Amino acid sequence: MQFGIFTVGDVTTDPTAGRTPTEGERIKAMVAIAQKAEEVGLDVFATGEHHNPPFVPSSPTTMLGYIAARTEKIVLSTSTTLITTNDPVKIAEDFAMLQHLADGRVDLMLGRGNTGPVYPWFGQDIRQGIPLAIENYALLHTLWREDVVDWQGKFRTPLQGFTSTPRPLDDTPPFVWHGSIRSPEIAEQAAYYGDGFFANHIFWPTDHFRRLIDLYRRRYEHYGHGSADQAIVGLGGQVFMRKNSQDAVREFRPYFDNAPVYGHGPSLEEFTEQTPLTVGSPQEVIDKTLTFRESFGDYQRQLFLMDHAGLPLKTVLEQLDLLGEEVVPVLRRELDARRPAHVPDAPTHDSLVAARSAAAVTR
Q: Is 233 in contact with 297 (CB distance < 8 Å)?
C-alpha cells in the first residue's frame, strides 16, 4: 500500500491573512512539501498539470526532475498528465528522461483535466476528448514498447521509422494510472491495458466512484490480467487535521468557505458528510479512510490533497507531520493486515523490472 500527497498547485489568497503568494513562492513551496513528504515517510508525491491561472504546475517533469535531485526514496508522479492535449511523443520522451534522472522513481497519471479551454490552447477540440485520450495513449504505449514505430492515426501526423529517446529505464516503461472523475470509457481503457485506475475521490459521493471502480475491476478480469480484486486501484482524499477536531474545523472553515474549488457552495459539514473530505483529529482521518476499503475493496494507493485553498506552507508542513507520524502508520498496519495475500502491492519500477524478467524466462 502506498500513501502520499498530490497537489493542484493553486495560487490562492490566504483568507485569514489576506496575502497571496507569488508564483515563485508557490512553486518553491511545492518543492518543500515534496521533500517534507519523504522526510515523514510517505511513498508518493504527485503534481497536477495546469496551463491557466491560478495554477502554476504547467511543466510537471521539470518540477519532478528538480525534486528528484533533492530526494532519495519517494516516488514522483503526476496527478494529471494531459493525454488529450500533450503530444504522446513528448510525453514518452519526457517521462523516460525523468525515469533515468530519478533512478526509476517515476510513474504518471493520465487524465483529460477539468479546464475546457485547454483544448484550443493546444490546437485540439474538446468534443474529441475521449477519442483523443484513447488514440494518444495507444501511441504512447507503443512508443515505450517498440524501438522503431510506424504509426498513423486521426489526430497527429504519421510516424515512420521513429524511435523515442531515451528508451525507458531498464527497458521498462513507467507505470501508468488512468485518472477519472466521471468517465467509464477511461475505466475501460485502464482495464484493457492492465494499467492502474485512479478514482479522484474528492468531490463526488462514494456511490459514483464505486460504480466506476467496479466497472474497471470487472473489465480488468475480462481482459485476462488477473481477478477483479487484483486490479490496481488508487484513490484521492482531502484532509485537514488538528489534535482536537473542534480546532481543525474552526481553523479550516475560512479556507473551505473561500476555496476556488469548493467554496461558496455546500457547507463544510455537508461536504464532509457527502464526500471523503475529513476535517478533524488524526483518529477521525484514520476511521474515515478505513471505510474506503469497505466501499472499493483492497486498493494500492491513497493520495491526500493537503496544500490548497491558500493554506500557508507552515500549516501544510504541520499537516504532513500529523499524517506521517499519527495517521499513515496506523493505516498501513490496518490495511496490510486486511489485504489477502493474492492482492498485489502497488507497482514500482523494481517490481515491474522483476515481472518483466520473470516473463522473459517463461517464454
A: yes
Can you give the pLDDT of all 363 residues of the chain as single tens digits? 999 999 999 999 999 999 999 999 999 999 999 999 999 999 999 999 999 999 999 999 999 999 999 999 999 999 999 999 999 999 999 999 999 999 999 999 999 876 778 888 888 888 888 999 999 999 999 999 999 999 999 999 999 999 999 999 999 999 999 998 778 999 999 999 999 999 987 777 788 889 999 999 999 999 999 999 999 999 999 999 999 999 999 999 999 998 877 767 789 999 898 888 999 999 999 999 999 999 999 999 999 999 999 999 999 999 999 999 999 999 999 999 999 999 999 999 999 999 998 888 876
d(C-alpha 119, C-alpha 157), whole Å: 18
pTM, full prediction: 0.95
CA separation for the pair 322, 341 (Å, rounded): 30
Examine residue 166 and say whether the peptide bond preceding it is cis (omega within 30 degrees of 0): yes
Task: Find out whether 238 and 276 touch, Cβ atoms under 8 Å.
Answer: yes
225: exposed, middle or buried (Cβ count in 10 Å: 0-12, 13-18, 19+): middle
